[in-house]
Each structure stands twice: as structure tokens, then as C-alpha cells.
Amino acid sequence: MAAFIKKLFKNRKSDNAQPQPDVSALNPDKPDELNALIELARSAETNSQRGVAIDRIPHIKHLIPLYSEASATVRNRLAGRISALASQHPEQVEQARAALSDPQQQALVHQLCQSADMDAEQISAETDPQKLLSLAIEGKTAAVRLAAAERIEGEDELMAVQRAAKGRDKGVYQLTKKRLQMLRQEKDRERAVQSAIDDLIRQAEEHAKTDNLQLYAARVESLQSQWKNLSSAASNDQHTAFLTALDVCNRRVREVEETSAREAESHHKQEERKATLDLLRDTLNSLREAMPERGPSLSSLDALQKTQENRWMEATRESEVAKAEQKDYQALMLELRHYIGSVQRLQQQQDTLTSLVDAESPDSAELRQLLEAIDWPGGYAQPPALETAARKLGQAREVRKTQTSDQKTQVKALDDLLEKLEKALEQDQYTESRHLHKQAQHAFNALDHKHASQRQARLTLLGRQLQDLQDWRGFATRPKQEELCEAMEYLATQHMEPEAKATHIKELQQEWRDLGGSSDQSLWQRFKKASDIAYEPCHEYFAAKSELKHVNIDKRQAICDQLADFVDNADWQNADWKAVERIHRVARQEWRDAWPVDFKANRPLQKRFDHLLKQVEAPLNEERQKNEASKQAIVERAQALIEHEPLGDAMEQAKALQKEWQGIGITRHREDRKLWQDFRAACDAIFARRDAQRAEQAAEDTVALDTLKQAIEDSRQQREAAQGDLATLRQLQQALRNTPAPRRIPAPVSDELATEKAALDQTIQQLERGQQVADWEARLHAGNSQPGDGSNLPDPLPSPREIAIRLEIATGLPSPEEDQELRMKQQVERLAAGLTGGNGSAGSAEDEINRLIDCWCAQSIEPSDAENLMPRLRNALANWQG
Fold first, then answer.
1. CA 709 to CA 544: how far, in whole Å?
2. Among 12, 30, 98, 224, which residue is least crowded by beta carbons within 10 Å?
3. How far apart are alpha carbons 198 and 191 in whole angstroms?
4. Average pLDDT of the segment spanning 87-105
């Protein structure tokens, strides 16, 4: 029969889709109603209904099985209820462990029955990682799970927590997702930094080996600047590798600077020598063409001679001077000295010359002797007095005078050379002495017999002294020359960079030349053979380098052809500007990579390449400027949104501007960076307003949360003090409902609020039921003297015995054994009539009891029946009161 009733009840429930019963009317002390509460806690339509059902379940052992299958929100409610029961009834913890055989459920008992303070102690810096993982997944509150998840560091553990929290705990899921993203971004950043360090080391090593010295020092400075930004992340080995390469680069920079300085100094000296020769040549030419108006200035000519001698001496010091250049200088300076000597002699004999020229019949012999003494150089413009004297002497005499003057000039030049040679020999200047001896020999050969015989002995003596100096010098320099031979032979056996080797070879050869060579031909042949052997690999290298220059010229020619083809066929109206920019960048890079080249062959290619680049850069710059103007407009619009209201609309527009920014094409890097900084500053200002509002709202929520906590505590204290004051309890209930709450209530506070509301509801309900029961008992005691509203009473009225049985059914009280059959009949009738019985709502149960009291009061009851049934009625009402 019971199975039939259960089946019938189930079918009618599904057919009629009756509403779920009032949770507060279910008595957890009764097994059936306790099962109904557990089912509602598991599958009620709303979380609020589930929460109320959870708060009505009285034992931990019934709540633990619900926890494993509950959602995150319901889990928080369950955890709060379990924790509260563990605090109020500690004996339930051991009872739950004894009742539950599943190890996982027993572990939940251990975890969820700990106090909140214990959880806080566990979640600390010393907490075991495995314990943190367990708390982050199975923590009894959202705060515990979040705190545990925040302390998890491992990527694998965070992924495990994320998988467990997905769809169940939004806060933990978002936290772990953000942490994982930050970890991955940090790893990506570290990999990028290490890659940049390795690339910088590679560039430094390649730069240390490159033959391209163009902008070499600037590139070294750039590498050093980049290393400063990355050195903190580099290992010791990376530091060593970079600094080693950088040291090589710095040495090459110093070598390049020294070479450049020497070349600049050499060029400067060469220019000075050229200027000296030009000035001497121009001065002598002007003296040949015309005589100055006031005659030749001896002081000016003497100053010119001394300054140019000093200038030439400084320009030739520690420098190689070509023989032709030296010869030109000596010839010009000798001619200038001759001219200056003639001017001096002219000024000394000016009075005598004037008296002879002015005389009507001058002494020809005296005049001729005077002109020979003055010895004016031929080919130069003569002063008027000399021209007049020459006319008076006649043409034949002038010719003889010229011949005599030439001999004197040669004699003077030879004497000067012999004087210099003698001084050079005294100072042991072998190279200078040998050069002067050759010049003196040439001057001696140009003299006639008369003049040459007078100087033959002196020249022969100086020649012997030169030979002695040569013999002594050869003896003194031979050990050094042998060392140079050994150094060259050793250099020939060494493996080193060809350019460095060639430099060393030149240095040794220059030292050999500085020693003045060697009279020992075997020693010279030894040195030359070693030089040839040492230079052989250098020759191959420079030949290969020359071939490489030709190859690079071909590459640059191909780059120009490809770039020209692109320029000729480009559709600038519909161009892919990023591709154009990439082509421009790659072309420049490939052009730089095609190095070294022959400068002469590269000159027209360079002009063509520069022209083609300008043709590509012009539309690129136009597009960049257009895009920069668009970005500037976006910046201005963003800046206008800083004070825009409402804030939500400003934020949406800012996000739209960010997308619009991303869609804009190419710009110049420096300009784009500046515009981006302005745009980012405007966006930050907009979202800073949001953060300020959130902070303000958070402060308000904090105040509201503190107010709510205080209201809950005040309600709890006043509820306990109110005892049976129903009016006070209702005021507390209304005050708790009217207390402002924050937007998000923490789970512990939410649990406390729900518990306090449930306690108020239960206390008020018990007091209201007590008053109702007292009223019903008063009516029962009065009998039919106070009948109720008879319009809702059945006809016929149920018998007193039936009234007692129905009242027991309505209040959930068992009937005596003798009335079981009648009770079953009443239950079937109730089910057929669509009533819910003990599982109905509180209102329907109260109405049922009220109708039954009305039925009792509406009829006359036999005293014997009243005496027998009244205790049963009172017991039923007391059971309903609870």
C-alpha cells in the first residue's frame, strides 16, 4: 500500500507540476522531510532556494556529499554551513567521519571543518605547495581559494588549478589565467633578452673581424650603448665574450684613429710643401716679369727666404719627400738666394754704379768689374741702373758677362753644397750626406776647368769622408739589419690576418730603408726573399679581395636594376606601404652588405642608387606624413575624451580609437613614438578616472560591508535579548532587510547574513505559531461557542475522530494503531483531492488546521469523544508549533 501511495504521489506531482514546498515548513528531524531538504539543496531551481535548504539541514554528514557535486556559489554556502555546524556542534565532525566511508569525503570533513583562522595560518609563505594546490581547488570559501591560488608559483600547478576552477570558480579561474599569462610573458621576455644578448655578441664578434672600416667607431659606440641596456641579464660567459670582442674593436678603433691622424698629418705636410713651392715659384716668376716700382725689397725677400726654409723644414720632418719635389725646392731656393745676393750686392754698390752710369765717359773696365761683382741673375727684370750700364758696355761685353755670371752662379751653388755636405758629415747624417754629395758632383761637372780645378781637392776629401761614414755605418747597422732579416723570416712563418701581416711587412721594410740599405748584397737578398715569402699569402688575399670587390659591384648593379624595375612598375595609388617600406629597408641593407667595392667603379652606381632611393622615399614620406596626421587627429580626439561624460561612453570611444590607431599604416618611428606617448597618456587619463571611480566605489563598499557586519552583530545580540518580543523581532528583521549592502558580499559575511535572517525567520515563525496554537487551543476549549467562517466548511462535517486524524496528518504526528486504516483512507482522499499534506507550504498547512478547528467548533461533540480526542488535538498542535 505504501508503494502504491508513493507511486501515485510521484505521478501526480509530475502531471500537475506542483510548486516546490516551502523549505521553512519542512522538519529536518523527520526523515522524509530531511530527505526533501537534501533534495532541494541538491536540485532546487534557484541558488537562493538551495541556500535556504542548506541552512535547514542540521548535520555535517548530510552536507558533505552535496559539496562534491555543487557549483562554486553553492559550495561557498555549504562550506559556511559546515563550518558553522563544526563550531556549534564539534561532536558532529567525528560523527560525520564515522558515517562517511569515502576517503575523499572524509578529507572534505577534515578540510571544511577547520576554522577560518586555521585556513589563514595555512596560507602563508611556508605553506606546503601541495597543500596550497589542494586549498586552491577545494578551499571551503572563495577567499581561501583565491589566497591559496595567489601563492602558487609553478606553471603546472597553476594550470591544474585553472582546469579545476573552469566553470566552477570564476575568481580563481581569472586569477590563474592572469598569472599564467604573466609567467608566459616573463618567459617570452627573458627569451627575447637572451636572444638580443646573443645577437649583440655575434655582431660585436663580426665587427671585430670585418674589413669595412667605414663608420667603424660609431658602430662600436652603438654596440656599447646597446650592451648597457642588456648587460644586467647577461651571464659571466656572455660578459666575457662581448668584452673580448669589444676590446678587439677598441684596439682597431685606436689603430684607425692613429692611421687617420698620420695620414692627415702627412697630407697637411704635403700641402705645406706644395704651398712653399708655389709661393717660391710665383715670387720668382713675378721678379722675372717686372721690377717692383720701388725696386726689390731686400728685407721682404730675406723674410720670405727664412720663413719658407722653416716651413719646408717642418713639412719634411719625419716624412718621405719625393726626389723630384726635393730637387724643385732646392733649385727654387738656390735661385732665390742668388737673387737676394744680387740685390744685396746691388745695394752695396749703388752709389758707385750711379756715379759710373751718370759719367759721360765711364771706365768700361771698372763698369764691367762692377757688374760682374753684382752678378745679377739672368732672365730677371733688371733695375734701371743695371740696364743703363749694360747698354753702355755693349752687346759683346754683355754676352761675356752673362757667361761669366753663369760660372759664378755654378761656383756659388757648388760652394753652398760643399758647405752643407761638410756639416752633414760632421753630424753623421749619412742619407743627407749622400744626397748632397750627388748634387755637388753634378754642380762640379758643370764648371769650366778654371773654376773646377780650384775645388777638386775639397770635393775629393769630402767624398772620402762620405765613404768612411758609409763603411762605419754599415758596420754599425749590420746587427740591426740581421735582426730585421730574422724578424721578416719569422713573420713569413706566422699565420695571421693578411692585412695585419702586410702592415707588419711594410713596417719592417720601412725600418730597413731608414737604416739606409746595405752594401752587403747577400744580406739584402736574404731580407728581400723573406719579404717575398711573407707577402705571398697577402698577395692571394688582396687578389681575392679585389675579386670580391668586382662581385660586390655586380651585386650592387643587380640591386639598382631590381629597384629601378620596382620604381617603374609601382602603383603608388594602391601600394602596399608596409611592403614598400620593407623593400626600401632591404635594398639599403643589401647595398651595405655588398662591401667592399672599388670606389671608382662604385661612384656611378652610388649616384644611381641614391636617386632610386629618393624616388621610393618620396611617396613613402607622403604616406607617412598622411598617417601621422591621422594619428595626430586620434590623439586630439582622445585628449578631448579625458573630461567627457559619461565615463562609460568615453571609455568605449577610447577603445574604438585604439582599434582605429592599429589600423593606420606606416609612420616614421620617432614621430610615431611621440604620438603614441601622447595617445597613451590620454587613454591612461581616461581609464584613471575609471580606476578612481572604482576606488571610490570600493571605499563605499567597504563602509557598507562594515555597516552590514555591525547590523548582523547588532541583530544577533538583540535577537538573543528580545526573548519572545515578536514586535522587536519583526523590527530587527525589517532593519536587517533595509541595511544597505555592498555590490559584492564576501562569502563569510553572506553566510552570516543568511544565517541571521534564517534565525530571525525561524524565531518569528515559532512565536507566530505559538500565538496561533494558543488561539486554536482557546477555541477548542471554548467548543462550539466560537465557530469560524462556515462558508468554507465541508458538508457534511467530518466526525471528531476524522478531525483528529486529519489534524495529525496535517501536523505530521502519527495516529494510534486503531486509527491507521482510517488514516490511510484519509491520506488517499487528500492525494486524490490534490492536497500536499505534510509536504505542502506553511500557509496551506495552517489553513488546513484552521478548517479542522472550525469543523470541530461547528458541531456538538460528545463529552466522551472530547475527552478522548482533545489530548490528541493538543499534541498535534504542539507538534506543529515545533
1. 89
2. 98
3. 11
4. 79
CA distance 77 to 817: 43
Q: Which residues have a Cβ under 8 Å from the Cβ of 748 and sit 6 or more positions away?
A: 80, 116, 141, 143
Q: What is the C-alpha separation between 285 and 190, in angstroms, rounded?
A: 77
What per-residue confidence (pLDDT) applies to 21?
A: 62
* Per-residue pLDDT reduced to its tens digit, 712-745: 888 888 877 776 777 888 888 888 888 888 878 8
Spell out the domain ranges in the chain. 26-186, 219-348, 763-881
Q: Which of 179, 131, 185, 128 is nearest to 158 (CA)?
A: 179
Give the predicted TM-score (pTM) of the model: 0.33
Q: What angle do CA 115, 118, 119 make, to 5 degrees?
A: 90
Contact by Cβ (8 Å): 701, 744: yes
Cell digits of residue 550? 668586382
Q: How confident is the model at residue 629 (pLDDT cuts 50, 70, 90)?
A: very high
Whole-number Å distance between alpha carbons of 596 and 606 = 13
CB atoms within 10 A of CB 831: 15
Query: DSSP class of residue 114?
Result: S
Q: Is the peptide bond prior to 814 cis by the omega test (within 30 degrees of 0)? A: no
SS3 70: coil
Verify cis geometry, omega within 30 degrees of 0, for the bond prior to 796: yes
- CB of 270 closer than 8 Å to CB of 323: no
| Among 464, 412, 388, residue whose Cα is nearest residue 433 | 464
Distance (Å, rounded) from C-alpha 174 to C-alpha 531? 77
Residue 454: exposed, middle, or buried by beta-carbon count in 10 A (0-12, 13-18, 19+)? exposed
Say how far apart CA 213 and CA 217 lie, in whole Å: 8
Q: How many helices (H) and strands (E) does the chain have?
A: 35, 0
Least Cα distance to 82 among 96, 98, 103 occurs for 96
Residue with cell 490511510: 824
DSSP state string for 4-61? HHHHHHHHHHHHHTPPPPPGGG--TTSHHHHHHHHHHHHH-SSHHHHHHHHHH---HH
Contact yes or no for 368/401 (Cβ under 8 A): yes
DSSP element (H, E) containing 668: none
Q: How far is CA 509 from CA 233, 430, 525, 599, in A?
A: 49, 18, 13, 28
State the Cα–Cα distance between residues 584 and 635, nearest whole angstrom. 29
Whether 216 and 259 have beta carbons less than 8 Å apart is answered as no
Distance CA 622, CA 665 (A): 12
Q: Which three cell numbers stand for residue 556?
A: 650592387
* Cα–Cα distance, 704 to 714 (Å, whole number): 15
The region of weakest confidence among 71-75, 157-161, 330-334, 599-603 is 71-75
pLDDT of the residue at 140: 63
Confidence of residue 293 (pLDDT cuts 50, 70, 90): low
Contact, 783 vs 853, CB < 8 A? no
Q: Do 754 and 51 form a contact (C-beta atoms < 8 A)?
A: yes
Separation between Cα atoms, residue 615 and residue 478, nearest integer Å:
66
DSSP state of 293: T
Please choose, from the candidates 795, 818, 794, 796, the residue with its C-alpha nearest in 3D space to the C-alpha of residue 869: 818
CB atoms within 10 A of CB 122: 20
What local confidence, expressed as pLDDT, does residue 633 receive? 92
- According to the model, what pLDDT value does residue 660 have? 86
Using the structure block, give the residue that is written with the C-alpha cell 654596440: 223
- Cell 506553511 sits at which residue? 842
| Rounded Cα distance, 182 and 176, in Å | 10
Distance of alpha carbon 89 from its chain centroid, rounded? Answer: 59
DSSP secondary structure string, 306-341? Answer: HHHHHHHHHHHTTS---HHHHHHHHHHHHHHHHHHH
